[in-house]
Amino acid sequence: MSFRTTCPYCGVGCGVIATPDGSGGATIVGDPDHPANKGRLCSKGAALGQTLGLEARLLAPQVGGHAADWDSALGLVADRFRDALAQHGPDSVAFYLSGQMLTEDYYVANKLIKGFMGSANVDTNSRLCMASSVAGHIRAFGADTVPGTYEDLDEADLVVLVGSNLAWCHPVLYQRLVAARARRGTRVVVIDPRRTASCDIADLHLALQPGSDAALFNALLVALADRGATDQEYVARHVSGYREALAAARASDPSLTGLAPAMISTFLDWFIATERVVTIYSQGINQSSSGTDKVGAILNCHLASGRIGRPGMGPFSVTGQPNAMGGREVGGLATTLACHLDIANPAHRSAVQAFWNSPAMPAAPGLKAVQMFDAVARGQIRALWIIHTNPAVSMPAADAVAAAIKGCDFVVVSDVTRTDTTRLADVVLPATAWGEKSGTVTNSDRTISRQRAFLPAPGQARDDWRMLAEVAARMGWGTAFGWQDAAQVFKEYARLSGLAGDLGRDFDISGLAGADYDTLPPTRWPVSARKQGGRFFGQGGFFTADQRARLLPVTPRLPVAATSPRYPFRLNTGRVRDQWHTMTRTALAPRLNQHLAEPFLELHPEDAADLGLAPATLARVTSPLGEAILRVAITDRVARGQVFAPIHWTGETAPTGRVDALVAPVVDPVSGQPESKASVVAIAPL
Ligand code: SF4
Predict the structure, then answer these.
(1) Which pLDDT band, with edges at 50, 70 and 90, does 432 fall under?
(2) Atom of ligand 1 nearest to the CA of 6
(3) Structural domain spans, the chain
(4) CATH topology for the 3-51 domain
(5) Domain 131-318+546-550 is found in CATH 3.40.228.10
(6) Exposure of 440 by Cβ count < 10 A (0-12 exposed, 13-18 middle, 19+ buried)?
(7) 362: cis peptide before it, omega within 30°?
(8) Which CATH class is domain 62-127+332-443+459-508?
């Protein structure tokens, strides 16, 4: 028997068909009927069958490092959260979640901490990934709406990749772009300081100075205006703030990009001459101290030119994780409520509170990820629940974060395998993994897909939503958390979204409340009597008070940390093709480990010569915050003075490749997203 499910890695959200082999494994093929991938898989998805073993799995609860039964472990979690709330109030508790969680798990976590514990201190590792896109969407559109669809990639004549190595980070979308290019000659522009694998198909590569993207898109807005290439009717009917945004764009200096004027002109000419333009952006835009403004500069150009919400055009934020979008939708960020409702809006709060029949509801946003771990370090957070993420490795200033977790009064971690973070926990709860649990995820183009269990839960592993509900019951809230299965959680969530639709929000899947959960096909939201799937904003209809999009004046800001004689290199971080996050799953697949076997540092040949570093030798990389030991890869893919290192390796790997120990916890003031691609470091031979 085969099962249709969804890949657990990136935000492309590919459908896979799993056929269990009867002895704990399964064969995996792409699902030809899934709209995201139509049968394609990348190397990671194709190797999923090699990752299903029980090596390193957590199979029983642990308390204080010793095996415990579920009842005592959950009882302790409930007691410690109850005590923290009673003695120190709702600001003393926090949940740190993950884009790896299923929507149902996310919904229950958000309901428990916001609606019942009364704290908005719930944030997610998606804060590190795409919070600037969320903030940018909300500022411009009035809601966190992705306007377009994957079909737009098939139908565009120009695709601009900004801060996105689509070839490695969203490989099946890249394959889709390659196919479209072969079919219709789609032009591709890559805007990235580093010459990535995506440049293999680029007609133009703009290797701009790190962090200068807003200056380039401001130049585009000026060119659109000066050459009569704005859509004046669209602007007049659907947009506000055009004059102010244009004035700010005129005041900014394109030379900040460091690009030759002729290169900039080519990009401007191509954008202006092409109606069907999709601009795909990702972590290179988002992970910045000015990420929200960079998103705004991109959205300004698409809104001013009316290139939005129609076939083959629009700005497109691609998400890193399999369910970053689902987490955004359920309100798994400290700055949002559920179903794209606004935590700062009293009407929204009271509607959700009435629906949940809950005793408490925070009236303001809670602590974003970096702030949250600062609060842990200060002792403000007394009880912390970390679910499916490894902040001791992946947060900026990872050494300080690990120390903060270790020093916290009470930490519970739910996860699938032992990690650097589970080793710091008071209670470790074994969770079911991909293939063992059931639920839904939402991909980058708003398509909700089912993940289906095709293997039994090993040992004592339990589903996340069930653990959370059992703690809620022990805290006295069993009635509101009394679901029998994930399908019941989803149906409640779908009903709540109908209420959001009634309040004028974009996210409404009330049409799925009565759907057959078991057989639910991939479905793009919204799904309601008002609207079914499709694109947003081709005819306006923004989610602001006056239904107009807001163009925002953007003044480019370069990275906060400046290089200096002591720290003369700018460190860019990112993913490699065949690994995922901190490698807890991908490292199990021998095939994936063959691509790039150990942590490395890309360094320009002239810099390597100056430093006396030969190829494949080891370098000590230091920042004001920490150190990593990395294998030198000499390449002109990076410019002089810039280096690149991957994020995946942990402190246990030799050489030590824990690069987030080097990254400063500098954040965007609006989104709270860290500047993970522009730290300053020193490099020396080991
Ligand atoms: Fe999985 Fe992403 Fe690869 Fe698709 S592109 S198979 S979702 S990792």
Answers:
(1) very high
(2) 7
(3) 3-51, 62-127+332-443+459-508, 131-318+546-550, 569-685
(4) N-terminal domain of TfIIb (2.20.25)
(5) yes
(6) buried
(7) no
(8) alpha beta
Beta bridge partners of 683: 621
- Rounded Cα distance, 297 and 140, in Å: 10
Ligand 1 atom at minimum distance from 7 CA: 1
Say which DSSP state 198 is in.
G
The Å distance, Cα 12 to ligand 1 centre, comes to 6
In the block, tokens 């300053």 appear at 680
DSSP for 591-641, written as a single string:
HHHTTS-S-EEEE-HHHHHHHTPPTT-EEEEE-SS-EEEEEEEE-TTS-TT
State residue 127's pLDDT score. 93
Provide the ipTM: 1.00
What the block records as the tokens of 668 is 């965007």
Per-residue confidence band for 653, with pLDDT thresholds at 50, 70 and 90: very low
Task: Give the Å distance between the CA of 278 and the centre of ligand 1.
Answer: 21
CA of 575 to the centre of ligand 1 (A): 13
Which ligand 1 atom is at minimum distance from the Cα of 172? 5
- Report which DSSP code applies to 19: E
The radius of gyration of the chain's CA atoms, rounded to the nearest angstrom, is 24
pLDDT at res. 529: 93
Question: In the predicted model, is pLDDT for residue 654 greater than 50?
Answer: no
Q: Which amino acid is at 294?
A: K
Within 13 Å of residue 579, how many CA atoms lie on the same side as its CB?
20
Q: Which of 6, 172, 173 to probe ligand 1 with, by most ligand atoms within 8 A of CB? A: 172
Which protein residue's CA is at the shortest distance from atom 4 of ligand 1?
Answer: 14
Q: H or E element: which one contains 151?
A: helix 151-155
Prediction pTM value: 0.96
Residue 168 CA to ligand 1 center (angstroms) comes to: 10
- Beta strands (DSSP E) in 294-406 are 314-317, 383-387
Q: Which helix (H) or strand (E) holds 472?
A: helix 464-474
Contact 10, 41 (CB under 8 A): no
DSSP labels, 90-130: GGGEEEEE-TTS-HHHHHHHHIIIIIIS----EEEGGGGTT
Q: Which of 9, 17, 129, 575 to mutate to test the pocket of ligand 1 (most atoms within 8 A of CB)?
A: 9
Task: Determine the distance separating the centroid of ligand 1 and the alpha carbon of 495, expressed in angstroms.
Answer: 30
**Predicted confidence band at 467 (pLDDT cuts at 50, 70, 90)?**
very high
| Ligand 1: lining residues by beta carbon, under 6 Å | 7, 9-10, 12-14, 37, 41-42, 44-45, 170-172
CA–centroid distance, residue 296 to ligand 1 (Å):
28
How far is Cα of residue 334 from the mean position of the Cα atoms in its chain? 15
pLDDT band at 652 (very low <50, low <70, confident <90, very high): low
Mean pLDDT of 166-170: 95
Q: Per CATH, which fold does 569-685 belong to?
A: Barwin-like endoglucanases (2.40.40)
The secondary element (H helix, E strand) that includes residue 63 is strand 62-63
pLDDT in tens, 264-302: 999 999 999 999 999 999 999 999 999 999 999 999 999
Instruction: Determine the atom of ligand 1 nearest the C-alpha atom of 12.
Output: 7
Distance 549 CA to ligand 1 centre (A): 33
pLDDT tens for each residue of 540-581: 999 999 999 999 999 999 999 999 999 999 999 988 888 888
For ligand 1, what atom is nearest to the CA of residue 170? 5
122 CA distance to ligand 1 middle (Å): 27
